[in-house]
Each structure stands twice: as structure tokens, then as C-alpha cells.
């Protein structure tokens, strides 16, 4: 239980993200960074342009006239919420395209941490791709009810908070999957792993999500998150093939 309790600390998530940022500069990882960088550049530039032209109109529709006097408070809240929705959606698309490259980046990171090639380092592209599709399907089924909340007066005032929590969880699920899949963990096992460490995972996802909304930073945030997730899993789980600490 102590291992799980320590792994549930938000500070561990912060530390792993900082380690991921440091490892990002390692020469051994550069060949795994270029294609995801190009993918992120194209997609997040598109997300920014689309968001700039559409978010304001969506916010005016979401805030009823009788609450217009609170618009100075609600406008930033809804703006951040729609920003999260947009970048969360584009993150799913980016990860779907870059999944094979992120998988190899995770494997190479693990080899750097241990000084040798990891066990089952290279899952097949088809397995990685369909694993990503399964996660996206799982998340999209939960996106629809949350979107409906924005259409319900008064209730839509808490929708941004719920969206922020959901986006953090979904982003953590996206990136933690790569090192867990290398260990042969099924999707159900991955969900259990996250549920046992929910505060750490929410912190990891929230900080990663914040980075994904920042211009320039978002171009390398995905790669940083993959490396950080690999470091995190390596710290809280025994070597591949062993039993999970509890």
C-alpha cells in the first residue's frame, strides 16, 4: 500500500514531468522527436487558428442573456473550457497519428534509464494503432454527455470544471498507455493502474494539458509527456514481467 500511496502523490507527477523535460534534450532521443514535432506543429497551428475564430461565438451562445452581467467572470471560464475541448480533441488526433513514434520514444527512454534494450520494446504498429483507437473510443463515449451540459442553462456553469477534470484524466490516459503497453498491460489493467493513483494521474494530465495549450511549448509537450510517463511507470512498477507493487 505504501508504494501505491507514494505513487498517488501529485509531487511525483511533477517530478517526472521535470525529468521528462531534461531527458528531452538527450541526443539519443532526437531521432524519435522529429516526426511527432512536425505532426504537432501542423495540428496545433490549426487548432489555434480554428479556436481564435470560433470560440468567441460559442461563448456568446453558451451564456444566456440574463447572465450577461456576469460575462466578465464567465467569459474567461468558458474560454478556458472551450480551449480545453479544442486542444483535447486535437491531442487525440495527434496521438493517433504519432502513436507508433511515441511508442518507440517510450521504449528508447526506458533503455536510457536502464542502459540496455527494454523487454518487448517495440509493439507492432497495428497493436499500437488499435490500442490508440480503443482509448479514443472510450473517451469519446464520455465526451458526449459532457458536451450536453453546455446546452443546459445554469448547469453549464459547472461544465468547465467537469471538463477540466475529464480532460486531465483523458490526457493522462493517453500518455501513460505507452509505457504500460510495453509491459503487456491490457486496457482494463491500464485503467486500474490509473484509478489506484488518481491524484497523481490527474496532476500529470492537468500539467500536460496546460503545456499543450501554450504556444511553442505544445510542440514538444507530447514528447515530454511520453518520456515523463515512462519515467513514472518505471518508478512505481517493478521491471516488466514482475508483479505490480502494492
Label the overall shape. globular
- Give the SSE order as H and E letters: HHHHHHHHH
Q: Please tell me the total number of domains.
A: 1
- β-sheet strand percentage: under 5%
Helical fraction: over 70%
Classification by helices and strands: mainly alpha
Instruction: Return residue spans where pLDDT drops below 50 for at least 5 consecutive residues.
Output: none
Report the count of strand segments: 0
Rg is 19 Å
Report the average pLDDT across residues: 80
Straight-line N-to-C gap: 5 Å
Subcellular location: Membrane
Organism: Methylomonas koyamae
Keywords: Amino-acid biosynthesis, Cell inner membrane, Cell membrane, Cysteine biosynthesis, Membrane, Sulfate transport, Transmembrane, Transmembrane helix, Transport
InterPro entries: CysZ-like (IPR050480), CysZ/EI24 (IPR059112)
Structure, described:
The chain is an all-alpha fold and 246 residues long. It is built from nine helices and no strands. It has helices at 2-7, 10-23, 34-62, 71-114, 125-149, 159-182, 187-196, 198-212, 217-236. Helix 5 runs antiparallel to helix 6. The model has no long low-confidence stretch (mean pLDDT 80). It comes from Methylomonas koyamae.
Can I get a quick summary?
With 246 residues, this protein is mainly alpha-helical. It has nine helices and no strands. The radius of gyration is 19 Å and the shape is globular.
Walk me through the topology:
Layout: H1 2-7, H2 10-23, H3 34-62, H4 71-114, H5 125-149, H6 159-182, H7 187-196, H8 198-212, H9 217-236
Helix pairs in contact: 2-8, 2-9, 3-4, 3-9, 4-5, 4-6, 4-9, 5-6, 6-7, 6-8, 6-9, 8-9
Subcellular location: Membrane
Organism: Methylomonas koyamae
GO molecular function: high-affinity sulfate:proton symporter activity
